Amino acid sequence: MAKSFHGRGCRFGAGFLTVGRGYTLDVNLHKVRSPVVSSEPSSAAAVAELDPSIIGPDVYAPQDDSWLLCQAVADAGVAVDARVLDMCTGSGAVGLEAARLGARSVTAYDISPAAVECAARQARSENLDVDVRLGSFDDAAELSAFDVVLCNPPYVPAEAVPVEIGLERAWNAGPDGRIVLDRLCESAADLVQKGGVLMLVQSEFADPDKSLQMLSDNGFRVREVVRSTIAFGPVMDAQARWLERTGRLEIGRRTEELVVIRADR
Ligand SMILES: C[S@@+](CC[C@H](N)C(=O)[O-])C[C@H]1O[C@@H](n2cnc3c(N)ncnc32)[C@H](O)[C@@H]1O
Asked: What is the pTM (predicted TM-score) of this model?
């Protein structure tokens, strides 16, 4: 039986994930992606291939948000010859894409040992030079600031944050969905060098306006570069009743908008 990966937006079966222009993810078994809505055509010739056999059950399998950020990074052309930091790297999907797009160097951090091992193995399997490290924002801030910082953080609002490091920490981001987003926006000026760029992806349910405001207050020029509507996957489905009860979600609605924010320092 095919192995299945479960994440915040979708699920898919085993096989190579081939992600090309438009980032339609066709995994032999299930078509799992809706088309990305973007105001500009993709300039990317990038084709991301991740080996799902390397993505264990404790690691966030890349999906809509991952590919939306990859696509936006490719379209923006910011990774070429840049020193790139991929925060919250998970399987390494975004950092590896930056390496494929021609980054001069890629450093990636995650708090999950399983994710760090997975991303490092993915990089080795593609012969890409990605420096994957166990750690978080304080660790990354000790390095000299980067040209480009990319982040697909946990952003799903949830009643209680899990204490243990594990798969749930990949999406669960506390009642307002902002535990990691706030940390990212606070530390952005330490991570991104002057003239550099931060690109992040998040849900409408985690207050993108707050991200824009915090980054602007920290000296960045900010704009939303992509907005895409996707159907709820298993994680959002599981949160739906609580989101409805607490007034965060219209009754019966089962879609969300994902937003990619670009912030230039
Ligand atoms: C939504 S997943 C994104 C994975 C990958 N970047 C992608 O786009 O598919 C979020 C990741 O952030 C990691 N994470 C959660 N809190 C973190 C923190 N404070 N610092 C670093 N990584 C964190 C989780 O372990 C998880 O791997």
From this structure: 0.86
